[in-house]
Amino acid sequence: MIDKPGMIDNTEGYTLEDRHNSRRLRLQTLVRLRWLAVGGQALTVFIVAFWLKFPLPLIASSSLIAALAWVNFYLTTIRYPPTHRLEPPAAFALLGFDLLQLCALLFITGGLANPFAALVCVPVIISFASQPIRYSTALIGFAMVCITVLAFSPFPLPWFDGVEINVHNVMQFGVWCSIASTMAFAAFYAYRVSMEASQLADALAATELVLQREKHLSQLDGLAAAAAHELGTPLATISVVAKEMERELKNDDRFREDVMLLRSQSERCRDILRRLTTLSSEGEAHMRRLPLSSMIEEIVAPHREFGIALELIEKSPRKGEPVTDRNAGIMYGLGNLIENAVDYAREKVTVTVEHDHDKVLIVIEDDGNGYAPDILTRIGEPYVTKRQKEDTAGGLGLGLFIAKTLLERSGASLVFENRDPESAGARIRIEWPRMLIDANSTK
Fold first, then answer.
1. How far apart are alpha carbons 193 and 85 in whole angstroms?
2. Three-state SS for 245?
């Protein structure tokens, strides 16, 4: 099961390289943000110098803005195509350059007294949202050094002639603390949101792969029938030729045994193909649809041989029970939940099935230690792996997320809880509106 640690990286079609590629920042995205920064800086300098007419080191400011624009032009026009994806070291270098350019511009225009000093946080937030943690940590360390240097800027804030704004040291320290705390909080928040989104995307990708595999397995019967049909004609030809050869060479001792063997084996192959075709034509209907009790028994059967008593209780009569389509998602999801219950049970797992005119309810209970209190609120999230068990590691991670996702896609609602205080163990309630699971219902 994919529930076991590490198997997500071995799932067919999904590798660790895919995860690495998903953390590579697209150059065009970064370049567009930098062009926005170029435009914003140029507009701000223009307003301050020519509209407000504040004294401003115009040449130095324009040079810094031009440097950022030139690097952008070089990257997209000369060096790389727009679709190029940056490796983490390259992204770190570009974001570090952006940070250095912005801090240099702030340094010559008042340092931390400049109201735009808070923009120092932007490259750091971008890094934490898209880059590996080690590069992002190095960038925030560099940013802290930069804002510390800004606190000691000797250049005054551009202001009206004859008026100089002197910011008290305590105020300077307060601004430094404000920017530093905003940067740290925003970076941590961006990192957490990005990681959760990445984990969810990984888990959903694994869910799709599992569902695709289950559907593929359910289609093998049809593929066998198609193969039998396609092989029937050439095999019939071989059989006819073998009969002709046997009739012509029956008195030739050199080839008689070989020809008889050829004919017997061709007849054997035709018999095998005949059975495959018969199995498909007679079994296709019951393979596609089956009563609820048959589906549950088929799901439960593989888990009876693990030393844990597995009891199946049917509270409702089989007469009038729902007839379900063979849904790969439902069968995999229920099988995964039962497997988890068997893994964590001490002696017994109970599966209770109940149905009426409105709903279909399946309850899975085990007599293990149950769920840890702090895990109950997080059950169903990907990579939650802390169910209480003394002798087994792992479990309740990606596999449970996949099972929950597949069952919810079929219309089920799931409730995870511990059993009553006097009865140790966990309980899972899976409930469908009957019209969603009964193939005979009018949908």
1. 22
2. helix
Q: How confident is the model at residue 12 (pLDDT cuts 50, 70, 90)?
A: very low
Name the more confident of 338 and 288. 338
Residue 101, Cβ neighbours under 10 Å: how many?
20
What sign does the CA torsion over 214, 217, 223, 227 have? positive
> What is the per-residue pLDDT for 344?
86
Residue 360, strand partner residues:
355, 432
Contact 363, 428 (CB under 8 A): yes
Q: Which residues are CB-neighbours of 346 under 8 A, at least 6 positions away? A: 366, 367, 368
Cβ-Cβ contacts under 8 Å for 318 (sequence gap 6 or more): 291, 293
Residue with the larger pLDDT of the pair 202 and 416: 416
Do β-strands 85-86 and 25-26 pair in parallel, antiparallel, or remain unpaired?
antiparallel
- Number of neighbouring beta carbons within 10 Å of residue 125: 18
263, containing H or E segment: helix 256-288
In the chain, what is the straight-line distance between the N-terminal and C-terminal CA atoms, in Å? 33
Task: Give residue-wise pLDDT tens across range 351-399.
Answer: 999 998 889 999 999 988 888 877 777 776 766 655 555 443 344 456 7
Instruction: Compute the residue count for the chain.
Output: 443
Distance between CA atoms of 203 and 168, rounded to whole angstroms?
A: 52
- Cα separation, 6 vs 394, whole angstroms: 10
CA 234 vs. chain centroid, Å, equals 46
By three-state DSSP, how is residue 111 classified? helix
Task: Reply yes or no on whether the pLDDT at 98 is more than 80.
Answer: yes
d(CA 266, CA 259): 11
Amino acid 4: pLDDT: 37
* 150 contact partners, CB below 8 Å, separation of at least 6: 103, 106, 107, 111, 112, 117, 120
Rounded Cα gap, residues 400 and 416, in angstroms: 11
